[in-house]
Amino acid sequence: MDGLRAHRALFDRLDALGPDIARAATLMSDTLRAGRKLMLMGNGGSAADCQHLAAEFTGRFSRERAPLAAVALTTDSSALTCIGNDYGFDQVFSRQVAGLGAPGDCVIGISTSGNSPNVLRGLAQARQLGMTTVGLSGRDGGAMRELCDLCLVVPHTDTARIQEAHIFIGHTWCALVEQALLAP
Ligand SMILES: O=C(CO)[C@@H](O)[C@H](O)[C@H](O)[C@H](O)COP(=O)(O)O
Ligand SMILES: [Zn+2]
Predict the structure, then answer these.
(1) Could you say which ligand is closest to the alpha carbon of residue 135?
(2) What ipTM describes this predicted complex?
């Protein structure tokens, strides 16, 4: 099966991202330890990743622990339609970042192209307000690279493969954050 072989090859190549995956997890656990929160944003399949990962933090991933502060900016249909309708779709995340965020929060942008305008604006807003920024991207990383303290670029051009790698990285973050926060 060529597809499966190519898939395995991609996941083998993710090894190279290991140090940055760990750095991003440390940034997130430091954020949570300091009483700040994680905010996630993305479109389409990446929006689903955002709410999936936020739920791992507020609910549980694999270990029993207190809930962790994470919010997906992709789930409030009233906010998304109000901001989209009144200000433009480009601002659906940046206005939520400005309204809900505080300095020291960590904003995570997920975009396979790294070029979705609403994600870029959300990251720029986060930086302007003193939040840290983490990106999950693909292809050449896109414009997102410049707006992130840490941007993990999955070395592939196919959106579906990039998304599969993103959720793998997201689950790895959940495991690492739990480990860091539960460590004695
Ligand atoms: O899931 C898929 C395709 O697999 C789509 O919903 C996809 O997420 C959407 O086309 C997004 O709008 C793509 O945006 P991005 O990943 O480039 O930021
Ligand atoms: Zn999960």
Answers:
(1) 1
(2) 0.96
